[in-house]
Amino acid sequence: SQQGEEDPQALSIQEGENATMNCSYKTSINNLQWYRQNSGRGLVHLILIRSNEREKHSGRLRVTLDTSKKSSSLLITASRAADTASYFCATESDYKLSFGAGTTVTVRA
Amino acid sequence: EPEVTQTPSHQVTQMGQEVILRCVPISNHLYFYWYRQILGQKVEFLVSFYNNEISEKSEIFDDQFSVERPDGSNFTLKIRSTKLEDSAMYFCASSVWTPRTGELFFGEGSRLTVL
Lengths: 109, 115
What we know:
The complex is a heterodimer. By secondary structure, chain A is an all-beta fold. Helix content of chain A is 0%, strand content 59%. Chain A has strands at 5-7, 10-14, 19-24, 31-37, 43-50, 55-58, 61-66, 71-76, 85-93, 96-99, 103-108. Chain B is mainly beta. Chain B has strands at 5-7, 10-13, 19-24, 31-37, 43-50, 53-57, 65-68, 75-79, 88-95, 105-106, 110-114. In chain B, a hairpin with a 6-residue loop joins strand 7 and strand 8. The radius of gyration of chain B is 13 Å and the shape is globular. The N and C termini of chain B lie far apart (37 Å). Chain A binds chain B through residues 3, 30-31, 33, 35, 37, 40-45, 48, 88, 90, 92, 94-102, and chain B through 4, 33, 35, 41-45, 48, 55-56, 89, 91, 93, 98-100, 102-109.
């Protein structure tokens, strides 16, 4: 299947620390997107990185994409309690966006 | 800020009953989607809709499911005869461009509980 798989499944860090999560996928993609979901809420788009891009930044977020390894990473720097959420990577192929199972991040105050 | 709105937020129904979940996408968006998320599991694509017809659907989206855009604003998902395994959170999303080009905007979801 095309969908990404996130790793780790869960991550617990102290406020102020960085959080890194990874996404691997199986076939070629046109872009990869990261979304965030607070418990029981809808998904919110964070960042989109195209297949010809290697790195992208948005505020405290840094996303990398390695198409040769079919993997992406999301780094959240200087985490805050409000960053506690599930983070999903989504891969686009055939005009369809497919999501992985997500990484649950808990930021301890 | 414009947002995707979904109703109801929670629906409880008996197995075998028909359910209609409603969505109002963002007004200038052209592409519409339904996804579902069984509790604690991945977000699964159901269907995408453009120009008043289905453009893509997954194997989950069988004959029990249908979508409709009955007027210029609403986008509905109908489940004809609900099963226990249809219990999930259903998310509507919309976008200006296809996912190849841009992001999807999601609603807050409709939780469906089938008893």
